[in-house]
Amino acid sequence: MASPLCHLHLFLLIFITNPWIFTTVDAQHNVSVGDFLSADGESAAWQSPSGDFAFGFRPIPGKEHMFLLAIWYAKVPGNTIVWYANSNTQSPAAAVRNSKVELTGTGRLMLTDPGNNELWSSRSAINDSRVSHAAMLDTGNFVIASENSSNLWESFKYPTDTILPDQELDVMTLFFRLWPKQITPYNTYYTLGAGSQFIFDDSGYIQIRNSSGRVLKLAPENVVSRPDSNYYRATLGFDGVFTFYSYPRNPSGGGGGRWSVLWFAPDDICRRFVDNTAALGTGPCGYNSICEPINGRPNCTCPPGFSFLDEKNPYIGCKQDYTSYPEDCNTDGSTIDSDRFEFESISFADFPFSDYGILQPATELECRQSCLLDCSCAVAILQDPSLSPHGTGTCWKKKLPLSNGWFNRQAIDRTALFKVPKSNGSRKSPDTPQPCRGNQNQNQAVLILSVLLGTSAIFNFISLAAISSIWFCLYRKRLRDADDTVCSRRDFETNLRSFTYKEVERATNGFKEQLGKGAFGTVYKGELSSIYGNFVAVKKLEKVIQEGEKEFKTEVKVIGQTHHKNLVRLLGYCDDDEHRLLVYEFMSNGSLSSFLFGVLRPSWQQRLQIASGIAKGLTYLHEECSTQIIHCDIKPQNILLDDNLTAKISDFGLAKLLINNKTQTLTGVRGTKGYVAPEWFRNTPVTVKVDVYSFGVMLLEIICCRKSVEFVMEEEAILTEWAYNCYSEGMIEKLVENDEEARKDLGRLEMQLKVAIWCVQYEPLLRPSMRTVSMMLDGAVQVPSPPCPFPLNSMSKSLKIMV
């Protein structure tokens, strides 16, 4: 567990204690009056009878010679902390080396520094009783008992960030404060259950007892509790998410166990800070940041033009990358030299507060222009104009600091437009595409004409004829070049940019630099105005058969509403006469194939992160986007990597699309050898499980850094068969024979391998959904042992060849 001292944000529990049921102390593990522990680095502790829990000093990570007086799971690797001593300000009471904690004759635990100065002490609830002893119980409760067998003090009455089975609270609500500077908290952002009593019973369930006395189970959901075989805890993380965990008491496999997430609340921590009064705070991610819930946790990112205040701590907010000076603004508040700025957009993002101006109705061009000319405007939020019958939306202008930014594809119908300096920090060069200014050429002609009209009548007559000719030429040129200018043309049906062929041809320098070639056409590198990013990838669809046109139309209509962190974003398209092209975001690190099978082996952690990202992207395609999409050709060549090595699925718009809520489709064999699911060859209905199969093959490639089909000694070796043989024979180390990092992580290696084997099962019904696959890869659910994935008598010589 991360130390509570490592974060500036601290989320606390408000509770009202009720009369507790006193527990009898086990006399065999008593702590006598005068006994003490010293913070000397040896981790001396008072243990419970079973040894499950320990009370004593734990070193604080990253804080040399600093210790925390705490209770922890003694048998769990890493010694997960479940309680720690708090100071008067509710912050952890940190002790230095040679500090000590002692059970005093007054019935208190007293923590003192080497100079005998008090750092913390327990406060007895009963003043008339004399202390008998103290003990660490098997429930995780540390108690101080009196001579009449009542408890003078117990840690269960003073929870910090964790509660354990057999623990109860009257009321449990969550609120936010900025630690350590802010003592008074902000308003409550979440209440755990609507009841009068919060109960974590000894059977491993969190329950709520309402005012009528009825007990309702709150967590975990759809899980049978087994306290005899699992440890349970519920912890409020520094990120504000209250999470229910389990850990196997006797982990199998020799690689140790891990805490598994069984339930968490709230389900969208980012939205909780937008929908209620707690939004007045900085939110889970701090000012000038964007919060996105991923697996229940806030994923904090900085918008364009901003970077983290602290790269090691993404939860404290972002700072603007450029400095605004008073001389950049006119006295009327307008921007001086507005050509220095441009806009970068993020769809499905919003900053619900900080607005100071509203334009309604407003087109995207009007919204951009208003913010561009306003010196105070840092970002403009545009409501999707396609939702309006008139094709116009609402524009909110925001100024710094930006608070409670959040991203949600299902709940937000807005686009955030961030005003940022141009990359070169200067005015546009003559070769840079200019904004659409339809009257610029006319104004030049009018200026010339006005000057000439001040001369003699004869000269004026001659000049007028000349200027008329110039005017006519300029006007024709403006009309001719209109298609060559990157104007604000948005197809509201697809939510994409519509380009002319000339625009794309110029952007690719005549389709000069080829990035790759696939079944549907060739991909070229291009460069457009930086509102699209510095570079783009242009797929030139080759008009071969009618099916290609149909696939293009389908992609444009569907992908315009399809966005996910792990999908390559489609920026626009060209449907100009016989020319059909797709404009994508450019992925600087190329394909997973090149990354995986290159000269240098990617690190084990990088490969795990990539596998998890691909699984999330496929989950979105199968279950979360408005129209279900089957990819049909999942392979490393169709997985691209951005600057941060984030995996993004490409070509998903070219997959067979399920229309009218159909769940199956029959079609010809599609895909690539080695990744094609068996049902393609059986003339049976094809479902999303074909993608699951292909993902399983690719997951094995990610694990082993070997191709799915290899030719060794002139014989064909199949990776799926070899991997299963290694698993069934208990030789999984051979899969990563030269990968020391992976060999040290055999527990996770085995888990990943089992997930892959489940994915490549011969029968589609045996394969898990991609949502389940994603949860298994993230450790949210346990992975059972898979059966043999192949039909009988179908095994090749892969084991012998590849070994």
UniProtKB/TrEMBL annotation:
Residues 22-157 form the Bulb-type lectin domain. It is a single-pass type I membrane protein. InterPro entries: Bulb-type_lectin_dom, Bulb-type_lectin_dom_sf, G-type_lectin_kinases/EP1-like, Kinase-like_dom_sf, Prot_kinase_dom, Protein_kinase_ATP_BS, Ser/Thr_kinase_AS, SRK-like_kinase. Its EC number is 2.7.11.1. One of its GO terms (cellular component) is membrane. Residues 1-27 form the signal peptide. The chain crosses the membrane at residues 445-474. It is found in: Membrane. This is Receptor-like serine/threonine-protein kinase. It comes from Hibiscus syriacus.
